[in-house]
Structures are given as structure tokens and as C-alpha cells.
Design a protein that fits this description.
With 161 residues, the chain is α+β, with helices and mostly antiparallel strands. It contains 2 helices and 8 strands, in the order H-H-E-E-E-E-E-E-E-E. Strand 6 and strand 7 form a beta hairpin.
């Protein structure tokens, strides 16, 4: 008579539970790392977009610096005389800053993801010339924390120094 070998083939239930627990733990670590990376990427994107929106202030500074005189100024709007019959105007129509050239709307200076929360123009006049103080506050529409970034500049008009 032959003796039958009674060895078991396959996994024991404890081995199976161990492998499932190990896989679940590893999966949780990987998913947590992915969530952290996604949050970091969103944060970096928001900061980059807000910093890049500083070009709004650069554009306004360049136009003010090239202006020969101020046509009209209010807290939220600024109209400049660039040439003999050319005007440039910045209008704050919440949440956008619009650029107007000779009465034609050129478009918004801010991107769709950036909301302008405040814009203030202040005229500075001295015996030697004129300048405009500009303060600008921006917010990213994708930022759930609602952080604001402030930009300030004082620009002297052409020929006023």
C-alpha cells in the first residue's frame, strides 16, 4: 500500500488576512501621498497665478508712465491722455479691471481665475509734476482660503520729474 501525502496546497486564512491588511495599509499610504501632492500642486498653482497677476500693475504703471496728463481720476477709474487725441482708461467693474483705448473696450487685464477685490487710484500733484498712487488687491477664485494679495505703486507721469 502506498502512503498518501496529505500536504495542503494554497494559502491559510491567516496568510490571506495578512496580505489583505498589508495591501490596504500600503494603499492608504500611497493614496495619502497622492492627496498631499495634489494639495501642494493646487497651492503652488494659486500662488503662481497670484504672483503672475502682478503684470496687471506693471501694465498700469507702464501706461501711466507714458501718459502726458490725467484726463479724469476717481477712486476706481483712471483716464489718461497719451497723445494729442488718444486716451487710455482703466475701469474697475467688479471683479475685473477693464482697459479702454479711445473709448473701445480692449478687454480685462486680469485672468478669469483672478478676481480684483479692490482698486484705488489717488492723484498726487506737486509744483514739479503729477503722479498716481495705485493700490490693487487680488484674490484667486480657486483659493478656498480666500487669501488676498496686495500690490502698491506710485507712478510719475511723463515729463513730471
Amino acid at each position: 500500500m502506498m502512503k498518501q501525502n496529505k500536504t495542503k496546497h494554497g494559502y491559510a486564512i491567516l496568510e490571506l488576512l495578512f496580505y489583505i491588511a498589508f495591501f490596504v495599509t500600503l494603499s492608504l499610504v500611497v493614496i495619502d501621498a497622492m492627496i498631499t501632492m495634489a494639495r501642494s500642486f493646487r497651492e503652488i498653482s494659486i500662488q503662481a497665478e497670484l504672483t503672475q497677476s502682478g503684470t496687471i500693475m506693471e501694465r498700469m504703471s507702464r501706461e501711466i508712465r507714458q501718459a502726458s496728463s490725467i484726463n479724469s481720476i476717481s477712486a476706481n477709474n483712471l483716464a489718461l491722455n497719451i497723445g494729442v487725441s488718444q486716451t487710455i482708461e482703466f475701469k474697475f467693474i467688479s471683479p475685473n479691471i477693464q482697459l479702454w483705448d479711445n473709448g473701445s473696450n480692449i478687454g480685462n487685464l486680469n485672468s478669469p481665475n483672478i478676481a480684483v477685490t479692490a482698486l484705488n487710484f489717488t492723484q498726487i500733484a506737486t509744483a514739479k509734476g503729477k503722479a498716481v498712487k495705485v493700490s490693487l488687491t487680488l484674490r484667486d477664485n480657486n483659493d478656498i482660503q480666500g487669501r488676498l494679495v496686495n500690490f502698491y505703486d506710485t507712478i510719475t507721469l511723463r515729463g513730471s520729474y
